[in-house]
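Run log // design_07
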């Protein structure tokens, strides 16, 4: 191979990551611009306007990198583009929307004025109800009026914890801004990400991992206008990390918190149970399950006993579409589109969902995960299939598989460089 061929090969090797970066940021920029101009939600439009700046700067920086010779320098890192996204697609819109929310238009039936999505104020309300009545769930049949969708709290009892700062310390403009539930969600997600990286040896986060888990529009938008899914995803990462580093009881306790906050992530229980068994054996599985059941009972049973009917209506019947009010959850995803064709389509959607669940279970049992990255991949695929095929779901739930896939890349880097993480504790190596 001649010198020109070597240079060309090196150029292609160098440009390939930049080409992918540019494609990623350009696609994100288009999404942000469309959201800014056509979304019915005020918070989405504000996010889109600022996010377009962040993604535009990231794309421009990528183009600039393309023109520069290889060499050291603070501005020659691909992470500069990520920093622009974090600032303009996450930090700035969140701050603007938290302050804008002080105008007090949350409860109006006017999505074009909402500075926070309904889940934020529903969770804050649930915390107040928990403090005053011992349960975050109201009896929707005893309201003295026909119930409507925002009367529901379709989360487990633990989710109310994120609203406690507002319930305990809110009341004035400054206090309300500082106790916005989105700040609690964001802080939880950040602490969980830090703890996960610390437990697996602080690997250098690959750029692609950061793009999937942090810079993707689903993550940055959720961070700005809502946030509970990011907190739950962060806690799930901690549970996976504890299981993968042979702390089954601690993993089970964290996982109980996760499931007691949002039931949609329950499939992670099966994956982590198999992971614990593959790494440590049946005895560890028994400890894992005992801790999971005990912690879940402590977190859930007291609230359940206060009003079993309300608990069932909010947490089980409403998300399943069987409540007094029908869940409005719907997105143009395959499951919803198939189900919307009629009774046959609805049945077919559930058949496809069951088939996907069975396929993931067979994969899980035939090739049991023994590493954290294995478990994360299986959970990501399972939650992704659930989101795509469930008749009543939201496309925002796709943030779970994206975050988990980004974390998987971090785990793989850590596993390659740390034999204590990359092997089971019982292996001779």
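design_07 sequence
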């Amino acid at each position: 191979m001649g010198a020109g061929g070597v240079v060309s090969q090196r150029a292609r090797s160098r440009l390939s990551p930049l080409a992918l970066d540019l494609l990623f940021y350009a696609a994100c920029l288009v999404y942000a611009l469309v959201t800014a101009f056509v979304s019915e939600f005020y918070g989405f439009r504000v996010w889109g306007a600022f996010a377009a700046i962040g993604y535009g700067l990231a794309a421009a920086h990528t183009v600039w990198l393309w023109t520069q010779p290889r060499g050291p320098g603070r501005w020659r890192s691909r992470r500069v583009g990520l920093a622009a996204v974090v600032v303009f697609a996450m930090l700035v819109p969140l701050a603007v929307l938290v302050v804008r929310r002080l105008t007090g238009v949350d409860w109006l039936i006017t999505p074009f004025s909402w500075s926070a999505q309904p889940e934020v104020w529903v969770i804050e309300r649930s915390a107040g109800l928990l403090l005053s009545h011992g349960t975050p769930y109201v009896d929707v049949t005893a309201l003295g009026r026909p119930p409507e969708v925002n009367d529901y709290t379709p989360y487990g009892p633990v989710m109310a914890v994120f609203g406690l700062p507002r319930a305990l310390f809110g009341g004035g403009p400054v206090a309300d801004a500082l106790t916005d539930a989105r700040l609690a969600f964001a802080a939880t997600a950040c602490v969980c990400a830090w703890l996960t990286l610390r437990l697996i040896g602080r690997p250098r986060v690959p750029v692609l991992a950061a793009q999937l888990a942090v810079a993707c529009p689903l993550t940055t938008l959720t961070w700005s206008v809502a946030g509970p899914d990011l907190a739950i995803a962060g806690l799930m990462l901690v549970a996976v990390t504890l299981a993968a580093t042979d702390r089954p009881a601690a993993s089970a306790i964290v996982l109980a918190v996760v499931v007691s906050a949002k039931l949609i992530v329950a499939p992670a229980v099966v994956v982590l149970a198999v992971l614990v068994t593959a790494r440590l054996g049946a005895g560890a599985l028994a400890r894992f399950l005992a801790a999971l059941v005990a912690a879940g009972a402590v977190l859930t049973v007291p609230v359940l006993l206060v009003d079993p009917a309300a608990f069932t209506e909010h947490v089980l019947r409403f998300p399943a579409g069987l409540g007094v009010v029908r869940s409005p959850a719907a997105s143009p995803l395959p499951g919803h589109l198939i189900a919307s064709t009629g009774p046959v389509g609805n049945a077919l959607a559930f058949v496809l969902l069951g088939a996907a669940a069975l396929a993931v279970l067979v994969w899980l049992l035939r090739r049991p995960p023994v590493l954290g990255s294995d478990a994360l991949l299986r959970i990501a695929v399972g939650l992704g299939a659930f989101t795509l095929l469930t008749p009543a779901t939201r496309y925002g739930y796709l943030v779970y598989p994206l975050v988990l896939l980004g974390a998987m890349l971090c785990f793989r880097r850590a596993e390659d460089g740390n034999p204590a993480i990359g092997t089971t504790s019982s292996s001779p190596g």
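Residues 3-38 form the longest helix (36 residues).
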